[in-house]
Prior knowledge:
The protein is mostly helical. Helix content is 68%, strand content 4%.
Amino acid sequence: LSSFLRSFFHRVAIDIENNMVNQNGDGHFYLDEHLPSSPQSMADGPVHEEMYELGLDKTNVTGDRIGSVKVEIEESGEFSLRTLWAFMGPGFLVSIAYIDPGNFDVDISSGAQFEYMLIWVLFVATLLGLLLQTLASRMGVVTGYNLAEMCRQEYPQPVVYALWVLAELTVIASDIPEVIGTAIALNLLFGLKLWIGVLVTSFAVLIFLALDYFGVRKVEAFIAMLLGIVCVCFLIEFTMADVSAAGLMEGFVPQMSVDAMYSAVAIIGAVVMPHNLFLHSALVQSRKVRRNRTHLKAACFYNFIESAIALGISFIINMCIVAVAAAEFYPDEPGAGLINTPKLLRRVLGSSAAPTIFAVALLASGQSSTMTGTYAGQFVMEGFIRMTIQPWLRAILTRSSAIVPSLMVALLAGNKGADDLIVLSQVALSILLPFSLVPLLKFTNSERIMGSFSNHGAIKIAALVLGAAVTVANLYLGVATALPFIEEMSGAGRVLMYMLMAVVGLIYSVFLGYLIYKPVALHLRPRTSFDSSTSELDEMSDHSDDDGLSGSKHGSDSLVDVDDGRTRLI
């Protein structure tokens, strides 16, 4: 902790001393080392047929951290299973957040209370998640920078640090259900007390570190294996339960009641995770492709297909959980949750194997979510404040931040408190989501950043409408969760909490409004056309040292290898 704090404040001091971000009098922001040499080098406006390089620093966080996989794309443009296989991986790492213990808790609760009614909400939430993950991956592929790096260059220094703190809180909040879920699984499998299980989860970082040493493909393979275990376990539970096929099909027909609104919003909040946007925009950069229009477009397409497959599997798992809860717990056990589900399964299904299978799925889900959360934490810290720490230290910091509240609750409040803490963490994620969602939508909507890859037409409208709907729904979830606790307080305490909510709500609204209305100010430097000729590329290569790049001459389809790992020339 001492080492981390020293590094952090040293990084802050450097930023303040060097005044990293300047405004040059023309409405654009530049880094000191990338100020334009003349007005002619600036972009006069968006040019659809040109690829721009952002005036950003050249630190390749993703490449340095997780390595890279070179991908060859068919020149004919035809679909290739071999190429798809090369792109398989990032979407599966991201999909783990869609089936973490927090999702299990929400799925069980919705099925136990409202039977199959909210399956359509789960389906829509998964589609919304696919849309947002597609936007995040496209931004990472086209710009070569992840969401945290983009935010660092776009916003003033105080805003960057505020967004970094909020992003770190999302990583911690997402890790709390993993800690508690893993502890519950250890209790079921080995009889460990809940608080002992919480402590044991701290050793899960050793698994991540061992796999991380062997490279990104090994991590992806291990996560895919855990995802398969979770899927098989719940398919077995699905076949053991008395699920109504007709009721399951009716669940895909939109229907809603006033009582079910809270659970519906909770499903959306549990599925759409803010740290996933940072994670996916970084992970896709592990696939290195030639930077021309055809190959970038193909990379975006294969990333979409891979994400659709991964999220499709996550939807099947979540649907099975809802269906099992609806078949076995509705309407007799409306209070069913993650904590008491194993006991209910043993009693309802009359089999000791059912809770064991559930525990195995829970353990696999918790461990895989831990690893992806550690990756997200690395990208967030290095992208926002350019502070690099060892993976083991990053993993310990994230896990410790989640273990402390989990351990306190397990010791003081027991199982009921642990269940409430899971709900609270999901509410926190819902409230924090807009601070990653708004920058993502603004960057991907900007033609100055994305060129012809920016959002257009129906996609742009759908992203804005759904983004606004998710933000409103998540804020409703936060308020609806907080009000019952406030109403239980005494008169003076209640008034104080309402005043505190008003102040926090005002700060929240002002900060979010600033992110929404602030124009995109990143300076875009025209590099060369997508359909560039060899001579144009050679000319760019000859002047590469002027842009802080080091590379050799290359043909029109060559990668430009630079010393820091970034491939930026087109």
